[in-house]
Amino acid sequence: MNIKDKTIKIDMKEKLSTLWIVVMFSMVFADILSFMIPGFLKQILDGTTDITITQELLLVFSVLLAIPIPMIFLSRVLKYTLNRLANIIASLITILFVIAGGSLYLHYIFFASIETLCMFLIIWNAWKWPKQNE
After folding, report:
1. Cβ pair 112, 23 in contact under 8 A
2. Using one digit for the tens of pLDDT, what is the confidence trace for 88-131?
3. Residue 126 CB contacts under 8 Å (≥ 6 apart), including other chains
4. How far is CA 64 from CA 11, 42, 47, 87, 130, in A?
5. How far apart are CA 64 and CA 53, in angstroms?
6. pLDDT of residue 13
7. Which of 12, 21, 107, 121 sits most deeply, having the most CB atoms within 10 A of its CB?
8. Cβ of 124: how many Cβ atoms within 10 Å?
9. If you compute the radius of gyration of the chain from its CA atoms, what whole number of angstroms results?
10. How far apart (Å, rounded) are the C-alpha atoms in residues 115 and 117?
């Protein structure tokens, strides 16, 4: 028996959706661990962070952080052409957000690396996805 006999073929939609799940959980846990940094929550509560936290800023962050959530579902249900396009665009936007909004804390760099790798895998798989009949 060779290795090919043991390889399981995963549907592309399932693969993309699963990668988005990894991205989403990585984002959540990076943020949760950030709250454990001594003084971090106090700065937020006191309003003494490096940036002014406004309702508009929180809305922008909410929209950007929410991208992986619908992509988990959309990767499974969208038709081929729209699916490829949505995955590539959503990944590019999210990569920019992860890198631009990042910090130099080791836990964040770790999770951001996982997120970025997964999103590059999403882009690669969506780009190389063989043509499907819609």
Report:
1. no
2. 999 999 999 999 987 889 999 999 999 999 999 999 999 999 98
3. 16, 83, 84, 87, 88, 91
4. 27, 24, 22, 14, 29
5. 16
6. 97
7. 12
8. 12
9. 18
10. 6
Cβ(27)–Cβ(65) under 8 Å? yes
pTM of this structure: 0.88
What does the pLDDT look like over 11-59, one tens digit per residue?
A: 999 999 999 999 999 999 999 998 899 988 888 888 788 888 889 988 9
Q: Classify residue 67 by its DSSP letter.
A: T
pLDDT at position 40: 86
Between helix 68-77 and helix 80-100 the angle, nearest 10°, is 160
From residue 94, alpha-carbon distances to 15, 26, 49, 105, 113 in Å are: 18, 12, 23, 19, 12
DSSP 8-class letter at 78: S
